[in-house]
Every structure is written in structure tokens, then in C-alpha cells.
Design goal:
324 residues, alpha/beta, Quinone Oxidoreductase, Chain A, domain 1, Rossmann fold, 2 domains, seven-stranded mixed β-sheet, 11 helices, 15 strands, 27% helix, 26% strand, globular, binds NADP nicotinamide-adenine-dinucleotide phosphate
Length: 324
């Protein structure tokens, strides 16, 4: 089978796209013919082993798992003999590891029926980014009837966060770049503001929840956007790869500064997304069309390196899907 892999950490030019042996499912696993995956910033960090903290999970000296990729959507071709409830031919999706390949073995507990109304590539865009957004929203007691600000509203996580919060009855404000403002408005944001026009950000009235996928500001700068008693939910931070702290600890330095900051009656919540947590709820929202993955670019598996370069350099907005 074709797969995207690396034997050691390094730049994305180290990635190989070549034949690998097809994995064999254990008794509690399903063998899935992968039809699509998607590209997440995590794929880039895991492929490169930078920030170095990633290596504590992925393997210190060299990667424990050569094949990369997190999201998958595909068709079951073999069922481990301990498994009930799934059969050959079932269409499933979720988050697993080593998914940028023709076939992947997944534990049955990481397999979920693909929403029938969704194509494979749309479904494959939802697990990591969509469930991060859902888990971020769940950090607030409720968003119904509340004002929710999404910083990074045009990104993979942000496009889901805007739609999810709006579908739950929130009044959503989105911050994005000029070129993506209309897209964010179309996802259900009542107000959109342009971070390239910093003056416009002053017009944002205090919100009950701020979901920040960019985290380029200190707490004092975020404070005017947060109503008293509100929650600041941090999902990701811009990593300065030119600094030693950034290359070593990634967003951890920014998170530490936020934790130490005076909160003035606001709460801080930092998201560490749990794979597949909330996928049953997400499947319902996808099936009903209340939430739609925003795919801005599609690549073939054979162009996976170009897909990662595109994510790194072009910051496309929405999701990049990878067709296998
Ligand atoms: N905590 C977790 O478990 C978890 C899980 C998933 C992802 N993450 C992290 O969350 C972050 C976002 O992920 P993603 O998949 O959404 O990435 P993404 O698709 O690259 O989106 C990032 C978005 O940030 C926007 N942006 C850049 N600078 C901005 C600024 N100064 N103000 C407002 N928006 C700005 C960009 O908008 P424009 O295109 O409009 O410029 C871009 O669309 C990444 O750092 C990722 O590693 C964390």
C-alpha cells in the first residue's frame, strides 16, 4: 500500500511517499481501506518532531510510528475476531494514528459510523479539528444565548467552533483576516472583525466565552473582550520556531504566561483535545447539516508533502482534505 512516512524527524522534505506493508489487524481491530484524511497542524509537528515536546509522545530519538496522519474516513475490509457491531463494507471515520496510508488498523473503540450524508473527504476533516472545537465549547457551562468570540475563526478548528456555537444558540463574533471575513460570516457569525485592521477589534463588546486558536495576545489584551465571570478558552498558540523556547516547548511558554496572569474575575481553560471525545454528538450535527466541514483545498495522498507545505506557508482557512 502507499503511505506517507519518515524514519527520523526533520523537515517535511524528509517525508517519503512509497510502498509499505499492509498492516494486519489484531483481534480487537478493524482493517480500514482509507478513502480520505485531512491535514492538521499536528501532522506537521509530528512529522518534524518539533516542538521537541512532541517527541515525548511520538518517540524520543526517532519516531515510534513511521507513518503519519490522524484523521481517517474509509471502508472496513477486515474485522478482528473479538469485534461485534461492525462488518466488512461499513463506512467509518474517526481519529487514529498512521492514517496517511492506503490501509490503517483502528481499535473498534476508535471507529464511528460515517454520517451517510457526508463524502469521505468531508467526514475526514471533522474528527481532530471539529472535536477540538466541540471540546473547547464544552469548557463553558453553556453557550446558548451567550456571546462567544472565536479568535482564528477561519481556521480548521475555528470554522467548526463558529458553526457549533451558532448551532447551540450563541451569538458568535469571529476574528479572521480580510480575505476570510465573508466565509466566517457565512458560517453563522453575527459579527466578524479583521485582525489586519487592529482598530476594528476595539469594537468587540465583552463576551461570555472567548475561544482562541491563535493566542498571540497576553491576558491584559484579551481582557476587554471578556465579560466578568467569562471564560477564556485557549486551544492553540502561534509558535515562534526561531526561539529555543518555541522549538522546545511549543505553546507551553505562552500558556504558562496566561496561567500566571491576574485574571480579574475571569476563568482560563486550556484545551488538550481527547481523540474522538464527543464524536457521537458531532456525527448528529454533521448528519443533519447543522455543521459542515469547510474544505478549501484538496490534495491527493501522493501530494501529501505539498499539502503540508501549503498548510505551513499559505494558511489557507478551513480544512485541507487528503484523498487517498
Ligand atoms: N489544544 C489542542 O488539543 C489542539 C487541537 C487541535 C489544534 N490545536 C492548535 O490550534 C491551532 C489552530 O489549529 P487550526 O487547525 O485551526 O489551524 P489553522 O487551520 O492553520 O488555522 C489558524 C487560523 O488562525 C488565523 N490567524 C492567524 N493569525 C491570526 C491573528 N493574529 N488573529 C486571528 N486569527 C489569526 C488564520 O486566519 P486567516 O487565514 O484568516 O489569516 C488561520 O485560519 C494550532 O496551533 C493547532 O496546533 C490544538
Amino acid at each position: 500500500m502507499k503511505a506517507v512516512f519518515r524514519e527520523k524527524y526533520g523537515g517535511i522534505e524528509n517525508l517519503e511517499i512509497d510502498e509499505r506493508p499492509r498492516p494486519k489487524p489484531k483481534r480487537d481491530e478493524l482493517l480500514v481501506e482509507v478513502r480520505a484524511s485531512s491535514v492538521n497542524p499536528a501532522d506537521l509537528y509530528i512529522a518534524m518532531g518539533v516542538p521537541w515536546l512532541v517527541r515525548l509522545v511520538e518517540g524520543v530519538g526517532r519516531p515510534r510510528k513511521a507513518v503519519i496522519g490522524r484523521d481517517y474516513a474509509g471502508v472496513i475490509v477486515e474485522v478482528g475476531n473479538e469485534i461485534t457491531g461492525f462488518a466488512v463494507g461499513d463506512e467509518i471515520y474517526g481519529e487514529a494514528t498512521q492514517t496517511w496510508a492506503g490501509f490503517v488498523c483502528v481499535k473498534a473503540k476508535n471507529a464511528y459510523r460515517k454520517p451517510v450524508s457526508l463524502s469521505f473527504d468531508a467526514a475526514a476533516c471533522a474528527p481532530l479539528a471539529g472535536l477540538t472545537a466541540l471540546q473547547a465549547i464544552k469548557k463553558a457551562p453553556t453557550v446558548a444565548g451567550k456571546r462567544v468570540l472565536v479568535v482564528g475563526a477561519s481556521g480548521g478548528v475555528g470554522t467548526f467552533a463558529v458553526q457549533l456555537a451558532a448551532s447551540m444558540g450563541a451569538q458568535v463574533v469571529g476574528i479572521a483576516s480580510t480575505r476570510n471575513l465573508e466565509m466566517v460570516r457565512g458560517l453563522g457569525a453575527a459579527q466578524v472583525e479583521d485582525y489586519e485592521e487592529p482598530e476594528s477589534l476595539k469594537s468587540i463588546a465583552p463576551c461570555d466565552v472567548v475561544i482562541d486558536t491563535v493566542c498571540s495576545r497576553n491576558f491584559a489584551e484579551v481582557l476587554p473582550w471578556l465579560a466578568e465571570g467569562g471564560v477564556y478558552v485557549v486551544v492553540g498558540a502561534t509558535i515562534n520556531m526561531n526561539s529555543l523556547l518555541g522549538r522546545f516547548a511549543g505553546p507551553a511558554g505562552a500558556y504558562l504566561k496566561l496561567m500566571l496572569a491576574k485574571k480579574h474575575g475571569r476563568r482560563l481553560a486550556i484545551v488538550t483535545a481527547k481523540p474522538n471525545d464527543g464524536i457521537a454528538e458531532m456525527s448528529g450535527l454533521l448528519e443533519s447539516g447543522q455543521v459542515k466541514p469547510v474544505i478549501t483545498k484538496q490534495f491527493q495522498l501522493s501530494d501529501a508533502v505539498a499539502a503540508l507545505a501549503y498548510l505551513k506557508e499559505k494558511r489557507p482557512g478551513g480544512k485541507i482534505s487528503l484523498v487517498v
